[in-house]
Design a protein that fits this description.
One of its GO terms (molecular function) is 3-hydroxyacyl-CoA dehydratase activity. The protein is of the alpha/beta class. 31% of the residues lie in helices and 23% in strands. The protein is built from 17 helices and 21 strands. Bound molecules: 3R-hydroxydecanoyl-coenzyme A.
């Protein structure tokens, strides 16, 4: 059975189209009304004479809050003063039977604003720091005054009001603060250097207040609004401007002020009836030196710059302690010195990778659970989980370094053997860390064999899979090394009797061209000249591609094509397969172990010799 929308349960089609973005269209009346939203709470809204502040004040009052409508009544650039703006909003609130008082103080005199709340209503519960001015000028033209004034209102103003409200919040064990930042701060904006800096300052202020207030039930969050307001009217195009109603943002801010909202230290962006969360992420980065005593040269930085700036596995750190902890791990690693035979890499697995792999190993459309991310049984084919380790190895030089002697050509690198064991089904979406370590190097005469153990960990640090990748370097043997290894996991012979079952499937001539898109970009499989250096008349198919076909055949025959019944396998790639050739998988069942052997029909060569363990579970192996 298919679920209509597995991954994006309860979200609108538009949300689903935003796949991956953290956010949601804000739905007006769909949800049950929150009865106690802010009833009886005392809220101070600065800059509430117009625009966003006014919308916040009106909504909070409508939901039963007692509101201090603060507005200095100044112009957009901070000049002038008037009581009219605040008075008008207070009248509006009162005309709807709401409770409000006006306050005309500058936010720089924050204590006076808070005093207004306390003397009118006896307390303060909510503080929305919304007041702001603009003094836009390109950086070269910004005067000290332009800088100081913008900072005084936005950053110092928020500091002063919050400083005055803080003791009240602490005493009563409750407080909700909203800081107003801007995409000008998060992303920068031409002509707004002063404003951008102040807005980012508010993010920093909120981050720390969230930490310091947490124990006392004081939450501080940031709203990043894009609204039609005095500040934006001549900046945004008119048709866009019309859709940026402050009323569409007010509920988001009201929810941030609500006692049921547990967010603290969040940055919430909102505009045009949409809201989303922003945060700062950091790349996995790269250690720039080998040992603890080493200096770091500019060349070290240059050589590792790709890894330093690779954001594909970037992550959010919850706290400064987490960031420091990671630093300690780095120091630990550097102290232990380099491990020339070890690497680790984190991949960001997506449903798309899983589906592409399934397609690249000939999965028919009838196996929808391998091809459709919204299928209730959607999962990856077992051999998919080998791919990450193989790609990590292909990108590193640990295998080449492990072989004695120079002149190792990658054209002579063949996938020799493969072991895989899955402990827990890894998630099809999310980070997967692979840790690869050279286990042994063998001298097979005609070639050198490098055995690499690969452990895969999910985002919780759980070891979900183990694989052993054995590569065969043709012509790199005879270096006087050992021939066998206690570390090698060996395949067993298939039974002598006739196979219990057989499945045939033709690969197509583009098979390698498609398969390489799953990650193994080895030119051996696509470039005839490169393949010729390795002694091939044409590019051979990836070993893992043939294996993907074979494992699917076994699952189809014995496990209703359910990869979750798979436990482990060991194979040897005995002969190459070429795209377009037909694979025939012969299978023998012995309890929950299925032996299989795959032949190339055209050449009659055994191309994969192996055994495969399937876990026997209820309704499992037939
Ligand atoms: C960096 C990431 C790592 C992984 C990278 C993979 C990247 C991919 O892009 C590459 C690929 O997918 S290549 C395609 C898939 N692989 C193949 O087609 C290889 C097929 N196998 C062969 O051609 C031969 O077995 C051949 C050529 C391998 C060996 O044949 P011979 O030289 O004739 O060897 P033989 O005389 O039969 O045996 C000599 C000793 O070697 C052992 N041996 C044989 N085949 C082996 C194999 N496939 N793997 C491991 N060991 C193997 C034999 O057992 C023998 O040793 P001993 O005498 O000790 O038993």
């Amino acid at each position: 059975m298919l679920t209509a929308d597995r991954a994006y349960h309860n979200r609108s089609p538009l949300d689903c189209m935003r796949a991956g973005a953290i956010g949601a269209a804000v739905r007006g009346s769909e949800g049950k009304e929150i009865r106690s939203t802010v009833q009886g709470r005392v809220a101070v809204v600065t800059g509430a004479g117009a625009g966003l502040g006014r919308a916040y004040a009106l909504l909070l009052a409508e939901r039963g809050a007692k509101v201090v409508v603060n507005d200095l009544g100044g112009a957009r650039d901070g000049g002038g003063k008037s009581s009219q703006a605040a008075d008008k909003v207070v009248q509006e609130i009162r005309s709807k039977n709401g409770t409000a008082v006006a306050d005309y103080n500058s936010v720089e005199d924050g204590h006076k604003i808070v005093e207004t709340a306390v003397s009118a209503f006896g307390r303060i519960d909510i503080l929305i720091n919304n007041a702001g001015i603009l003094r836009d000028k390109s950086f070269a033209r910004i005067s000290d005054q332009d800088w100081d004034l913008v900072h005084a209102v936005h950053l110092r103003g928020a500091f002063k009001t919050t400083q005055a409200a803080w003791p009240h919040f602490k005493k009563q064990g409750y407080g909700r603060i909203v800081m107003t930042a801007s995409n000008s701060g998060l992303l920068g904006n031409f002509g707004q250097a002063n404003y951008s800096a102040a807005k980012m300052g508010l993010v920093g202020l909120s981050n720390t207040l969230a930490i310091e207030g947490a124990k006392g039930n004081i939450h501080c969050n940031v709203i990043v609004p894009t609204a039609a307001s005095r500040l934006t009217e001549d900046i945004l195009p008119p048709e866009f401007f019309a859709e940026l109603k402050p009323e569409l943002i007010a509920p988001v801010v009201a929810w941030l002020c609500h006692e049921d909202n547990t967010d603290n230290g969040a940055i919430i962006e909102s505009a045009a009836g949409w809201a989303g969360k922003s945060y700062i992420v950091t790349s996995q980065g790269s250690v720039l030196r080998k040992r603890i005593g080493d200096a770091v040269s500019i060349e070290d930085v240059r050589d590792r710059w790709t890894d330093v700036t690779d954001m594909s596995t970037a992550k959010y750190r919850e706290s400064i302690q987490e960031a420091s902890g990671e630093l300690l791990n780095v120091l630990e690693a550097v102290r232990d010195g380099p491990k020339e035979d070890e690497i680790s890499k984190t991949f960001q697995i997506t449903d798309k990778d899983v589906i592409l792999y399934a397609l690249a190993v000939g999965t028919p459309i009838s196996d929808l659970h391998l091809l459709y991310e919204s299928h209730e049984n959607f999962c990856a084919l077992p051999a998919f989980w080998i791919n990450t380790g193989l790609v990590a190895l292909m990108e590193s030089d640990i295998i080449v370094k492990a072989i004695p002697g120079e002149d190792i050509s990658l054209a002579n690198l063949l996938h020799g053997e493969q072991y895989l064991e899955i402990f827990e089904q890894p998630a099809t979406n999310g980070p997967l860390e692979v840790r690869c370590k050279v286990a042994d190097v063998l001298d097979k005469g005609s070639g050198a064999v490098v055995i690499v153990d690969v452990e895969s960990y999910d985002q919780n640090g759980t070891k979900v899979a183990f694989s052993q990748i054995t590569s065969f370097f043709v012509g790199a043997g005879n270096f006087g090394g050992r021939r066998t290894s206690p570390r090698a996991i060996n395949a067993v012979e298939v039974p002598k009797r006739k196979p219990d079952a057989t499945i045939r499937q033709m690969t197509n001539p583009q098979q390698a061209a498609v398969y390489r898109l799953t990650g193994d970009l080895n030119p051996l499989h696509i470039d005839p000249d490169f393949a010729a250096i390795g002694g091939f008349a044409k590019p051979p198919l990836h070993g893992l591609c043939s294996l993907g076909f074979a494992v699917r055949h076994v699952l189809r025959q014995y496990a209703n094509s359910d990869p979750r019944l798979f436990k482990a396998l060991k194979v040897r790639f005995t002969k190459p397969v070429f795209p377009g050739e037909t694979l025939q998988t012969d299978m023998w069942q012995e309890g929950s172990r299925i032996h299989f052997q795959t032949k190339c029909v055209e050449s009659n060569n055994v191309v994969i010799g192996s055994n495969c363990n399937l876990v026997s579970v209820e309704n499992g192996i037939s």
